[in-house]
Amino acid sequence: MLALQLGVFVAAALVTWGAGVMLAKSTDRLDRDLNLGDAIGGLVLLAIAGSLPELAITISAAASGHLDLAAGNLIGGIATQTMVLVLCDLAAPSKPLTYLVGSLIPVLEGLLVVLVVVGVLLGALLPASASFGGVLSPASVGIVATWIAGIVIFNSVRKNPKWEVVMHGAQPGRPHHRAKPPLPSRHAGWSTVRVGALFTLACIITLVAGIALEVTGNDLADRAGINGVVFGATFLALATALPEISSGIEAVRIGDHQLAVGDIFGGNAFQVCLFLVADLVAGAPVLSQAGKLNAWLAALSIGLTAIYAMGVIIRAERPRRLGPDSILAIVVYVLGVGGLLYLSH
Q: Does the 2-344 domain belong in CATH 1.25.40.10?
């Protein structure tokens, strides 16, 4: 039985990887065909699609009463997914990823992540009695409203920029600085409708794989005696981050550096919106039961986001294989996980 559960968990993880590659390629094409802009594709399309495993886990865990697992995966997943930028940095060419981005839009995206995670911290301080109809936490509603407002603001900034910033040597990606020479595309002759169908198929595959990850992952955590928050924030978060890993590396490979960052920050900002879903499924505010472990994870997520947002502004040259922001992020993440393990005991 244990071998079967491990096999299903690994198989579901591999499927999410393949679906992530499909999502990156189809999003890149849909972004150009539908004129969604340099970062909106990563902020909206890939963010929602990449969060489908978390959606499946949230619904399943909340329905079965495993609220610690749901909260740990949603909050801890932000820290883990931010570390995907380290892998994207490794996949980037001669300059660090944050050097190549060449836009302040990712900084705004990072600030949106900080805002919604602050909403998580505030919501965790509210008692369960502070709710709408005894079901929805005001913080859950406020997080969704903040995310929607952020999307509207980003779209306005994209259409009517108030700043003119020149970043020499930048290679942001779509729609101008494409990889040179252009990389061959398997979807070059496909219609927009066909590419949209591929995107939808990848979403469905990702969602089904996410359900398999939650069911087997929860059983494996119980067998190993691991705290639900710790398991959700580490092993499960790593498995559900596979779409972001594959789509982020693929975006870097095709020269879409801004999409790679937008994918991560956009997914992180949207992910905590799923607390609203968790409230509805559980029939009670979930954030009020988050606890100190999730508060620790939220603070860690804010710190890692700030590191990369500052990296985009500083644009440090690469003195070694990784940019200095990625090196600092690794140190902070390792210390953060160590602190999480200490608090869990």
A: no
